Amino acid sequence: MSVLLVEDDMSIAIVITAALEDEGFSVTHCDTIAERDRLLGERGYEALVTDVMLPDGDGIETIDRARALHPDMPIVILSAQNTLDTAVRATDTGAFEYFPKPFDIDELARTVRQAAGNAQGKVSRGDEPLGDGLPLVGRSPAMQTVFRMITRVLRNDLTVLILGESGTGKELVAEAIHQLGNRRNGPFIAVNTAAIPAELIESELFGHEKGAFTGAVARHVGKFEQAAGGTLFLDEIGDMPMQAQTRLLRALQSGTVRRVGGREEIRLDTRIIAATNKDLEPEIAAGRFREDLYYRLNVVPIHMPPLRDRSDDIEVLARHFLQHAANEGLPRRQLTPEAAELLSRQPWRGNVRELKNFIYRLALLAREDTIDVDSVVPLLAQEPVGTQQAGVQEGGDIASAISHWLSVERPASGTIYERAMAAVERPLFAEVLRDTGGNQLRAAQALGINRNTLRKRLSELALDPEEFARRS
Ligand SMILES: Nc1ncnc2c1ncn2[C@@H]1O[C@H](COP(=O)(O)OP(=O)(O)OP(=O)(O)O)[C@@H](O)[C@H]1O
């Protein structure tokens, strides 16, 4: 069996050739697209293994020329540009498989064997080109696995269950599946099932008819119906009350919903993506989550690893968020390699969300445009207790915290008031918002300040009240 390998990095080409030869292939190697096309013009191969960035062009963009010559030849794509966008572009060519670099060489060899032996090995090709990917960033092997899982569910309506700690990016993954998938022209409706009072959840999800219960003064269209033609994202599914779980299961089994107080069975045309930060198996064992619902939802599981287990991603995420902060009007900052390294060693128990908030704060408060270790350390010390390490706010009274802060931070003369206020307001507002579950009106009342003043300061401090609503 013969394979054509298109790879311009000689050291990688040598390793792949050896592994494929061990699998019994004879390997022809070339390093340009022009040479690829010339060789394919001469004869067919059992499989084509190709890099993306080649000296004379893009291996994905030009794949149609190879395919025109040998329509049934399976194609395996290798890429060093490990973005979701490349994964999607590669899969969209109908490639048999996509391997982000670095990859497991034995897995590649096994895959090529499988591809060569499998005439039906193509995945279906999308009819329309896909738009730019969502800003879902990550270069760790764990995130590459997530990208590959995402590409597998774009051309079907399989139910996806996204599992992972709070702040790992579950909602962003759900949005990416929607926006890159077949249903991108329909609505994306997200429901936080834990935030809806138990007695309202059925009416929220399935809708109700006028007069169905006291207070049902008009017909209400539920989230399932609102998501028709699109995607329904059921967040925090592990916290859904039992009765609502039963209704949800029934809807998924029958493929229909009925509004509370209604008779009509309405056909569902909604892709379901569910997410939870709870480990569902103990919930099932404790009788708090229906096992049959779990199996219904867990068709394609996607595991979002905690940020501490993929520290390779921290630097790219930090630079990505600095860029975002600048686009949103905060000062444009650069991170020194040492500062990036320090960030990569932090535990980030609040995961990407905590890192994102931290980076926005850094962009706001740093003294220089180039952020070095000296700018990061004092802010790390202020991270809320329970997420990062204990901070100055833990020790003693406010006066001693301020004197400690002045000695550590040493703010430039003329900036002390503004910087001290920011340093004090941030943990204060965070604490009060946490207490009020993100309710700004109640937070403003508790603080004894005007609601508009609070809203303005929250936005200046890059504090998102939504975040406290979710965690409450
Ligand atoms: N890989 C990533 N690239 C870029 N931004 C990310 C990534 N992962 C998460 N984020 C950002 O981090 C924040 C938290 O992500 P998200 O809300 O998706 O987490 P979650 O797992 O759904 O959290 P929760 O369980 O609390 O609902 C969001 O602002 C999101 O845009």
TrEMBL record:
SUPFAM superfamilies xref list: CheY-like (SSF52172), Homeodomain-like (SSF46689), P-loop containing nucleoside triphosphate hydrolases (SSF52540)
Modification 4-aspartylphosphate occurs at: 51
Primary location: cytoplasm
Entries under SMART domains matching the protein: AAA, REC
Span of domain Sigma-54 factor interaction: 136-364
Keyword Cell inner membrane among UniProt keywords: no
Keywords noted in UniProt: Activator, ATP-binding, Cytoplasm, DNA-binding, Nitrogen fixation, Nucleotide-binding, Phosphoprotein, Repressor, Transcription, Transcription regulation, Two-component regulatory system
Gene: ntrC
Protein name as it appears in the record: DNA-binding transcriptional regulator NtrC
Compartmental location: Cytoplasm
PANTHER family: DNA-BINDING TRANSCRIPTIONAL REGULATOR NTRC, TRANSCRIPTIONAL REGULATORY PROTEIN
Function: Member of the two-component regulatory system NtrB/NtrC, which controls expression of the nitrogen-regulated (ntr) genes in response to nitrogen limitation. Phosphorylated NtrC binds directly to DNA and stimulates the formation of open promoter-sigma54-RNA polymerase complexes.
Residues covered by the Response regulatory domain: 2-116
Native source organism of the sequence: Novosphingobium malaysiense
Highest taxon of the lineage: Bacteria
GO molecular function, one term: phosphorelay response regulator activity
Gene3D superfamilies according to UniProt: 1.10.8.60, 3.40.50.2300, Homeodomain-like, P-loop containing nucleotide triphosphate hydrolases
Gene Ontology biological process terms from the UniProt entry: regulation of DNA-templated transcription; regulation of nitrogen utilization
GO cellular component terms, A-Z: cytoplasm
